[in-house]
Amino acid sequence: PAYAFNPNQVVARYNLIYNAGLLAQLGSGYIVGLSHLIGHDEMQLEFVPFSPTLTTKMALIWTKNVPMSGAAQKFLEIFNQLIETV
């Protein structure tokens, strides 16, 4: 049977998917999130895409004309490499 989403069944929300992954790994529930955000193979989790596929648009923004820190520059470098592979 098809599963119907019921908002009353949401018992927790997260802002760090890794931490949510740890709870799911312990059997505390399921995670709804975007693919490729956590290493589900290394956490022994299975990623199951929605059917039909759900899509979303995202934007990466930062303050214009402000020098980026070394960490921010490295993040942007890795981010650009990742989006080339998707």
Structure report:
With 86 residues, the protein is mostly helical. The chain has one domain (7-85). Helices cover 29% and strands 0% of the residues.
In short:
This protein has 86 residues and is mainly alpha-helical.
Tally of DSSP helical segments? 2
**How big a fraction of the residues is strand?**
under 5%
Overall, the morphology is elongated
How far apart the termini lie comes to: 32 Å
What helical percentage do the residues reach?
25-40%
Q: Output the radius of gyration.
A: 17 Å
Quaternary structure: single chain
Major sheet details: none
Total number of distinct structural domains: 1
Uncertain segments of ≥5 residues (pLDDT<50)?
none
Main structural class: mainly alpha
**Arithmetic mean pLDDT:** 84
Protein name: Fhu operon transcription regulator
Please tag this protein with its features.
86 residues; mainly alpha; 2 helices; 0% strand; elongated; Fhu operon transcription regulator
SSE blueprint:
Blueprint lengths: L16 H9 L44 H16 L1
